[in-house]
Design goal:
This protein is an alpha/beta fold and 314 residues long. It has helices at residues 11-22, 79-84, 86-107, 143-163, 187-197, 216-228, 245-256, 284-290, 298-313, and strands at residues 2-6, 26-31, 50-54, 69-72, 110-116, 167-172, 175-176, 201-204, 210-212, 214-215, 235-237, 242-244, 262-265. The protein has a domain at 2-178 and 215-239 and 281-295: Rossmann fold. It has nine helices and 13 strands. The strands form four sheets. Strands 3-2-1-4-5-6-11 form a seven-stranded parallel beta sheet, sandwiched between helices. The chain binds nicotinamide-adenine-dinucleotide and uridine-5'-diphosphate (UDP).
């Protein structure tokens, strides 16, 4: 297949490039590098089936030749990034998704949207299954990301229903691994960097909020299965191993052999406004439709991630 990946120089996008190239496909990555980096794809320079195009996908996307699939990952998914760039976040979710869908339609390509567990907001149902419609504050600070993805899902379904476009929607739950930006502000880079530098781990508020962390390779496998499947409705992909952020901090300290302490802090910006209290995917549908479930235990995934960050920090 000839596949285009928006956000292809980002954390997940670059791993998808690697996987799809390894599977024998031709891959084009489009990225404006706002949060991504060419460092994530530098090893692919000169690869005969890979091409990188620097471009903002909120503008018209021109691609020569046929395309079999468009995977739309461009977004600003870290709370620090989307709180700093709320309008760009809304634009990439709305205008960027529109351009990517238009391209897929023009080429007769299959379209896959990278959506998020944030569409469930601060969920009133636990664990979250795809049938839950969510609990989102549209005018809160997180609303810019959540609503951009909800709009993107609605637009994707509208293209499917109106134009018969072959569409797929993956709702990604917290995913981590090598190539996350050291300063992207999400909890994994923050805690791992702090642990390796011997700094206190900044646990927000009481640390009792929960998340469920999925290793990138499991997610990439799930996305590839979804792309090949016939499932048009959204599918959750994530690791149902739920833990409190406090326990997660303790685990990272232990696995990295760090002597860091835990420091409870209340951020004085808007980072914890509407911060979901609990999050855990119900992956029954992914198991049934894709025969997928995560294989990498969190301890193993974290060991690989810590080793990668250690290397990066020198
Ligand atoms: P990332 O920031 O590493 O990747 C996003 C990429 O999109 C970056 O390379 C960025 O430069 C690019 N981008 C942003 N706006 C753009 C624009 N206007 N034009 C072109 N490129 C643009 O983050 P990630 O974690 O790899 O996320 C990838 C996708 O997965 C995103 O759509 C995100 O919403 C989704 N997702 C990720 C997680 C997670 O835990 N990592 C969870 C839920 C959803
Ligand atoms: N968090 C924290 N300390 C940090 C960064 C994040 O306690 O230094 C918390 C944050 O409040 C949230 C959870 O960790 O409850 C996950 O945050 P992240 O930014 O990784 O992603 P989210 O799941 O909120 O999108």
């Amino acid at each position: 297949m000839r596949i285009l990946i928006t956000g292809g120089a980002g954390f997940i996008g670059s791993h998808l490039c690697d996987r799809l190239l390894a599977d024998g496909h031709e891959v084009m990555a489009i990225d404006n590098l706002i949060t991504g980096s060419t460092r994530n794809i530098e090893h692919l320079a000169g690869h005969e089936r890979f091409r990188f195009i620097k471009h903002d996908v909120t503008e018209y996307i021109y691609v020569e030749g046929p395309l079999d699939a468009v995977l739309h990952l461009a977004s600003l998914p870290s709370p620090v990034d989307y709180l700093n760039e709320p309008i760009k976040t809304l634009k990439v979710g709305a205008l960027g998704t529109h351009k990517a869908l238009g391209l897929a339609r023009a080429k007769g390509a299959r379209f896959l949207l990278a959506s998020t567990s944030e569409v469930y907001g601060d969920p009133a149902v636990h664990p979250q299954s795809e049938s839950y419609w969510g609990h989102v504050n549209p005018v809160g600070p997180r609303g810019v990301y959540d609503e951009s993805k909800r709009f993107a899902e609605a637009l994707t379904m509208a293209y499917h229903r109106t134009h018969g476009l072959q569409t797929r929607i993956v709702r990604i739950f917290n995913t981590y691994g090598p190539r996350m930006r050291l300063d992207d502000g999400r909890v994994v880079p923050n805690f791992v960097k702090q642990a390796l530098l011997g700094e206190p781990l900044t646990v927000f508020d009481d640390g009792l909020r929960t998340r469920s962390f999925c290793y990138y390779s499991d997610l990439v496998e799930g996305i590839c299965r979804l792309l090949r499947s016939d499932e048009v409705e959204p599918v959750n992909l994530g690791n149902p191993h739920e833990m409190t952020i406090l326990d997660f901090a303790r685990l990272i300290i232990r696995l990295s052999g760090s002597r860091s302490e835990i420091r409870f802090v209340t951020p004085n910006d808007q980072r914890t406004a509407d911060d979901p209290n609990r999050r855990c995917p119900d992956i029954t549908k992914a198991q049934r439709v894709l025969g997928w479930q995560p294989e990498v235990p969190v301890e193993l995934g974290l060991r690989h991630t810590i080793a990668w960050f250690r290397d990066r920090l020198g």
